[in-house]
Amino acid sequence: MISRPHLSLTVSAFRILAIGSLIAACQAAAVAPRTSSGECPLTLPNGSTPPGERPSPFHYGNGAIWTALWPDGIVRADQDYIDASGAIAMKWPWWRASGAVGSLNIDGQRIDGGAPPLGVVIAEGYGDRGFQATTLIFPTEGCWEITARAGRGQLSLVTEVVLASSAP
Which domain holds residue 152? Predict the structure, then answer.
């Protein structure tokens, strides 16, 4: 029998390159410019599930902090989400793991036009790790960048907020 170590090395190298390309494509797909306006670089779910949670196609995270995103990265708010000031107030879940122990801090700004900063209500009583309920208050429709921080963890995302009546 003839030994062909170079052939098995070539097949192994091909498998490594194919897996690496697949991983890179999946990571690149996490942020895709698909919006109603076409100009908001939406963050899409990456399937990373918080510890202890059931898998969901809407999860987005990085091993330290997770959240759940709206379908296609677009928040479509109907009248039930509009508060007295005209702002759009949405409940938004977060999870923190061991690298993100501590108080959750969230900030955000509209990146496609002027607007006051994102309003945030962080519910009390959830401790310094695991699930954290919040309400994000978007003063206007538009393309919003949101960053959550806790301990050594940080997670950023971009979402478009539209009123359901004007949603595609």
Answer: 33-166
Distance CA 154, CA 18 (A): 30
Q: pTM here?
A: 0.76
User: Which residue intervals of 1-121 are DSSP H helices?
Assistant: 5-29
Tokens of 99: 């690298």
Q: What is the CA radius of gyration of the chain?
A: 20
Residue with tokens 């963890």: 153
Do 18 and 50 have their domain in common? no
Distance CA 78, CA 61 (A): 26
What is the identity of the amino acid at 1?
M
Closest CA to 87 of 95, 77, 96: 77
Dump pLDDT digits (tens) for 106-129. 999 999 999 999 999 999 999 999
In the chain, the number of structural domains is 2
